[in-house]
């Protein structure tokens, strides 16, 4: 985790830079929940979470789900999860290949 690495790389001996990351975050979260402000490590964790691009919906996942419905129907209902994953991977791989 990026925040944990940043915390461990600091060379300060103050109480704020305790070596136990989980304990520091829990203390800062408890203080924040009781009406305080975000501490240094909680703020770093918050900023790192905001920097992760997570789309609210994904067209690719919807397409994969739809494709799995075509592959796994009442005639092919005994396909294992691994086989279905492999078939979907191969289908997407070959669709991405340039046409010759």
Automatic annotation (TrEMBL):
Residues 44-92 form the HAT C-terminal dimerisation domain. Pfam families: Dimer_Tnp_hAT. InterPro entries: HATC_C_dom (IPR008906), RNaseH-like_sf (IPR012337). GO terms for molecular function: protein dimerization activity. This is HAT C-terminal dimerisation domain-containing protein. It comes from Spodoptera exigua (Beet armyworm). The lineage of its organism: Eukaryota, Metazoa, Ecdysozoa, Arthropoda, Hexapoda.
């Amino acid at each position: 985790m990026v925040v944990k690495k940043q915390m461990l790389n600091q060379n300060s001996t103050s109480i704020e830079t305790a070596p136990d990351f989980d304990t520091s975050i829990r203390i800062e979260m408890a203080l924040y929940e009781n009406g305080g402000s975000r501490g240094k490590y909680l703020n770093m964790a918050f900023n790192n979470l905001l920097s992760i691009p997570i789309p609210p919906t994904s067209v690719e996942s919807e397409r994969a789900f739809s494709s799995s419905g075509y592959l796994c129907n009442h005639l092919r209902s005994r396909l294992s999860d691994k086989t279905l994953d492999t078939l979907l991977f191969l289908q997407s791989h070959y669709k991405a290949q340039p046409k010759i």
